[in-house]
């Protein structure tokens, strides 16, 4: 029935697409076009009419045509592979970004090779070494929390390897960068707490110099200032999230510290995915009622926010879109005919999702 519907629409002969690997030659024969025309249509050439492109693309998609990446790469002098370095694969936010990267890359006939730094600058360099030695066409990287020296990345870039930063950005390398508006996200989260009557707002951040940590801290401070609330340095605590055990210890110590203050916080704003969900679990375990004893909001893209007890108010980042745009920027550098010297920094909007954890 599906075959008949397709052929009625385009009046084309069919290929037994379930039992055969479809080639350019097969498509050319089925559509009564030259192989050259089919190839140009699939590569969006200006020489081919839009009607022909539509017909070719529809037929190729329906019959699950997949271009031979290796053959195409050899012809172009490329591997048609992209190296992606992230902090950890355990993070839901990272998984969503990788999904966006893979979606865009696959559509452009690139495969991705994913490696994780585990927040180690040394391991990050080892990942980059392996990817470079493997002949990737470019690198997408969200730098490790320990990374303060970007000279190695700059060296790879000068050697001709395109590099794009995503999520965690830095001024130490000149290239395309794609991230979220962390300042605005933190500002909006803090204003939401203030508008709901909370005045003693603590902030749990990371013990790094990453741009995301600094921007979120500054957004929190600016919101307090704009609403005439005095910033209390004792309400700022940092956590080491280089490993889960240390993060748990730091969070437990921070909560004990907050609750021992003479004027203890009535709300906590947390800065990362890992801190947000673990903080809620610890507050529940330690017997504090959220939001009765203390409200909680944090940066996290977890799909379980609605299912937590209570449902967690969050600052949501457009992770999938971030990954797509980062991949598009890298592939544009890879396929550029002349060296690119002007770069963009793209900041995507965040959104506060209000749930029970901040409702008095």
Automatic annotation (TrEMBL):
CDD domains: HTH_LacI (cd01392), PBP1_LacI_sugar_binding-like (cd06267). It holds the Pfam family LacI. Keywords: DNA-binding, Transcription, Transcription regulation. InterPro entries: HTH_LacI, LacI/GalR-like_sensor, Lambda_DNA-bd_dom_sf, Peripla_BP_I. It comes from the Bacteria. Transmembrane segments: none annotated. The keyword Nuclease does not apply. Residues 22-76 form the HTH lacI-type domain. GO terms for molecular function: DNA-binding transcription factor activity; transcription cis-regulatory region binding. This is LacI family transcriptional regulator.
